[in-house]
Specification:
Blueprint (H helix, E strand, L loop, with lengths): L4 H15 L9 H24 L9 H21 L10 H9 L12 H24 L3 H28 L3 E2 L2 E2 L14 H21 L9 H28 L3 H20 L5 H22 L2 H7 L2 H4 L1 H15 L10 H6 L18 H9 L1 H24 L5 H16 L9 H16 L9 H4 L11
Antiparallel strand pairs: 1-2
Helix pairs in contact: 1-2, 1-5, 1-6, 1-18, 2-5, 3-5, 3-16, 5-18, 6-7, 6-8, 6-18, 7-8, 7-9, 7-17, 8-10, 9-10, 9-17, 13-15, 15-16, 16-17, 17-18
């Protein structure tokens, strides 16, 4: 089979996303810079290919442009925050105090840390590029199927690595010694909550692939359907089992609860889309619930003990949320700068947090967005995401096939949005990039392909039903 230029670009995009967790969740400057650079190169290659594509109609970009506009405004605002050209009364007062205390010239900014803000703009832009490429290339059904399978298997591979390290008792992150979260399964991530969220995303992908095989195809008898279900669904069921085990041994109660909510969203979405009958959807939910509860009770007690422990809400986490609320109130107009939560938090930290812990994140993504961006820009960012999710929700009913992708996009977003109430897993570049890819595929497959372009129709003759 000859691969087109778009096929090669899409496969490179998949490789970028699934390899992102390898260097500590890409949460290091070199890793997230490489992620942004490669995403930019892929966008340039796709743009050149589209411009010189003789006789190939360009893809329809109007729906993507409507979603991209609020995000572009947020990126522009992030650049303004990092700029030294803003009016003097826009600059944070701390810069004036620094100018009076230091001998050399001090250039003021709206952001408390312009370098962090530029990094924040770069990361957010790279996620937008991944989403956009997934949108335009994921209109092709064969590519969308490939993307879902690759994410499922790569997440399973990370889970297998983590389980091997966990049961062997090797407290290492690749070639590095672990210094935090000893006794927790984190695979290639530093933070157990981040890996728990990533394992949850992989579990959703495997579950979506399993459930898609429950839909009986239009052609073929029961024997053909049974063979398709066993051969097509069983490998992903095994992957889902391994990911569930890895999630439990991460001991992340937030990721576990958020994943449970996301599984419910996925099954309800598939029922709404008529991919599953409500009878099968109810049975699947019952089986998954009983299986998950059994694994939780028999595999490891640490996560259950942490679920029952409510002292953290009245301890450091409660004080962190209180201080975050004060910061959000003070920064509601223009923010302290995208990516600049950590230096801003040092101005507010008090004796209620005596432990020598550095807080780089607010442990609540909604508060953190307002603190860093200000309320108007945070609402624009939320508007862009809401438009994507609304399109996915509408696609559940207006599409007659491939509703598995918008359903998965809704479930993946719900996982990280629920988890974001108490943690910051979406701030990990590898997780944000994975979500961007899944949202892009869901958005692409939530819209009708009629009338379709030549690009949209590549490979559409295959697999008229399901994604198996």
């Amino acid at each position: 089979m000859t691969l087109s230029a778009n096929d090669l670009i899409f496969r490179a995009l998949l490789a970028l996303v699934v390899l992102a967790p390898l260097p500590l969740g890409a949460n290091r400057p070199a890793a997230w810079s490489a992620l942004a650079l490669i995403a930019g190169i892929l966008l340039a290659l796709w743009s050149i290919r589209t411009l010189i594509g003789a006789g190939t109609p360009p893809p329809r970009l109007a729906p993507l442009a409507r979603v991209a506009l609020p995000l572009l405004l947020v990126l522009v605002w992030g650049g303004v925050q990092a700029s030294a050209l803003v009016p003097a009364d826009w600059r944070h007062p701390l810069w004036a105090e620094a100018a009076s205390a230091l001998p050399g010239p001090v250039v003021g900014h709206l952001s408390l840390d312009p370098a962090r803000s530029l990094d924040g703009v770069m990361k957010l832009l790279s996620y937008g590029v991944i989403f956009g490429l997934a949108c335009v290339l994921g209109r092709n059904r064969a590519r969308a199927r490939l993307g879902l399978r690759v994410v499922a298997w790569s997440a399973t591979a990370y889970a297998i690595y983590g389980l091997c390290m966990f049961f062997a008792g090797w407290e290492r992150l690749l070639w590095l010694e672990k210094t935090d979260y000893l006794g927790d399964l984190t695979a290639t991530f530093v933070n157990r909550n981040a890996f728990g969220a990533y394992a949850g995303l992989g579990l959703l992908c495997c579950l979506a692939l399993v459930l898609s095989h429950l839909r009986r195809p239009a052609r073929g008898g029961m024997r053909h359907h049974a063979e398709r279900l066993v051969l097509g669904g069983l490998p992903y069921a095994l992957g889902g089992f391994l990911l569930t085990m890895a999630l439990l041994f991460s001991h992340s109660r937030g990721a576990l609860l958020a994943t449970a909510c996301a599984v419910l969203v996925l099954i309800l979405a598939l029922g709404t889309a008529r991919v599953l009958s409500w009878r099968i959807a109810s049975a699947a939910l019952l089986v998954i619930g009983i299986g998950g509860a059994t694994l939780s009770l028999t595999s490891d007690q640490v996560t259950l003990e942490r679920l029952l422990d409510q002292t953290e809400l009245s301890g450091d986490r409660g004080q962190l949320l209180r201080l975050g609320g004060e910061m959000a109130s003070d920064a509601s107009a223009g923010g302290f700068g995208i990516g600049a939560f950590a230096p801003a938090f040092r101005l507010y930290r008090d004796a209620s947090l005596p432990r020598p812990v550095i807080y780089d994140f607010a442990h609540n993504i909604y508060l953190e967005a307002i603190i860093e961006l200000g309320l108007p820009a945070a609402l624009l960012l939320g508007l862009s995401l809401t438009m994507v999710l609304t399109s996915c929700a509408l696609g559940l009913r207006r599409r007659r096939r491939d509703q598995i992708y918008p359903a998965l996009a809704l479930a993946a977003a719900s996982l990280l949005l629920v988890h974001g109430l108490a943690d910051f897993s979406i701030s990990m570049p590898a997780i944000a990039a994975t979500l961007a890819l899944l949202l892009g595929l869901g958005f692409a497959q939530s819209r009708s392909t009629r009338p379709a372009t030549a690009t949209d129709e590549e490979g559409d003759a295959e697999a008229a039903h399901g994604v198996g």
